[in-house]
Amino acid sequence: MAEGRVTVIDIARAAGVSKSTVSLVLQGSSSVKEETRNRINAAIRDLGYVYNRGAATLRQTGSRSKIIGVIVNDLTNSFFAELAVGIDMVVQSAGYVQFLSSCAENPDRQQELIGSMREHGISGLIICPARGTQASDFKALESSGIPVVVAVRNLPGTKASTLMSANAVGTRAATQHLLSLGHRRIAFLGGFSDMAVFDERTGGYRDALREAGIQVDDELVINAPSSRAGGVEAIGRALAVAERPTAAVCLNDAVAFGVCDGLRARRLEPGADFAVVGFDDVIEAKTAVPALTTVSVDPQGMGRRAATLLLKQINSNSSEGEAVTTAVRLVVRESSGKAINVRQEMA
Amino acid sequence: MAEGRVTVIDIARAAGVSKSTVSLVLQGSSSVKEETRNRINAAIRDLGYVYNRGAATLRQTGSRSKIIGVIVNDLTNSFFAELAVGIDMVVQSAGYVQFLSSCAENPDRQQELIGSMREHGISGLIICPARGTQASDFKALESSGIPVVVAVRNLPGTKASTLMSANAVGTRAATQHLLSLGHRRIAFLGGFSDMAVFDERTGGYRDALREAGIQVDDELVINAPSSRAGGVEAIGRALAVAERPTAAVCLNDAVAFGVCDGLRARRLEPGADFAVVGFDDVIEAKTAVPALTTVSVDPQGMGRRAATLLLKQINSNSSEGEAVTTAVRLVVRESSGKAINVRQEMA
User: Where is each HTH lacI-type domain found (chains A, B) (predicted)?
Assistant: First the structure.
């Protein structure tokens, strides 16, 4: 058989089935028995057949081929890796593949990736916007009719669907936990005010302090990249404040791990000498030493929900956005330490 | 201007340049001044122009558009995340974008991803083959003329370019290091014999033991998934062996971190009660507690080299494969501990 000229009939012959059974499998139908499907898939592989999904989908629905584009900010932050794993679970069983790209917090690169994904006919896009992204940056994308889910980071004014965790609820609980342990000088570390998620997460932190009758000290809200390196930088600056904090709520777990690194580099033990709380509950949060107290958002679960939300939009052919907020819960482990005695500071 | 009907002329007008200058920028030419290029790119973004690269490239060269496909096995293993970051650096500056997918060690999913990437006109593919992949699985891909770089994991018999680290050299050095500390019962943890990288890495381990006059005990070579969870599983089985090992060389850093978790769960301190050596030198290896002794392969550097190798093939229009082996070096940190006294075992 000549390369590139393998037809459905060749596949059917090799697998010993009818042409229509092969077509069903190619269309991702679940009505074909698994054993038969495996035999057909083996024949497809052996013969090097490439199903022109784009053309087939076009014939069927006048629509696009089966790719879900995903754009995140930092591949080395395991939150995004786990989010992608969750997305994969759902899109795979729906017969899609995920093409993942990172914009590394660069809005220009983000636009380039969106453009490239549009050119290559994605069916939908899940995006965690880069710092400094404006809702207007997605206008062309939205008016092209490609379903979009903005995940993790809010984008005020967007018409796309959004999937956020209850950010303020989470940091409020984290701050209340530190207050209940006796801390009064509590820092907020990481993030920048051009990220909507920063506003939401510092909002919960400020609320909890105010409710406890403590004035927010803006010196203790320290901007830094939302990465491990950002955490190292932030704790360095926090410890240089004249009246030092004794605890910190961090923008995310990556920052919290960096804070722990930075504390150790100064011979301070996280959990014993300084209380640290993260946000996300990535896989390593549980196994880290000390295990990280954090606000759990279930990153894989968020990925699954983002994918489900997107597929729903694709299948309903609707571009109407939905706003979904997922629940969070505080998971208390070792990094926030035991109750401390800082009553003298309150005198 | 009507959406989707923005032309090069509109861009030229908005940016105050000629139509041919816009074309040069769209084609990625470096002959346009940066300031002008930035102004044109801003106009492209503002107007929502999508350059049909596929069509333009087709007109120019009869060839493909500008995507590099990358397929890895496990997004939550930061080795692959760092590899992707390295690839991004190089492909970005060459005017490509990276579409990353994970096959989660599933050869069927891998074939589906390859098929989908072919359909969508990738310019080239960098792939870390899933467990159980045969060179024949890539035959159709290779004969389609798309340049392929097989990275990290070898695929005996492939005609594609390969980029491997000096696996046996690395594990030989790791094993010699443990021998020099006095260890005699040294386990090899993680991986399966249907991964070529497993053969190479256990090869170096076996060589070092033999050279030291120690017979390899196959009970101490323990198969497990090449993940953190696999490491927890493997150390559990290693510690159940009648004559317990006192040290382990691990397939990779992910396994080594799992081994540390598993030791702690049994109240053994890695580095003090049991020596652990990893392979990769991912970012966390340095900051982990204890810091991980490991064979450094410079994952980002490997990503950059894989991308450079692929771009060279794309630009030369050659499908001739090259085999590149990258150097490794042992980085001694805390997890391998101090010299121990196990001389009684040698009596």
Answer: 6-60
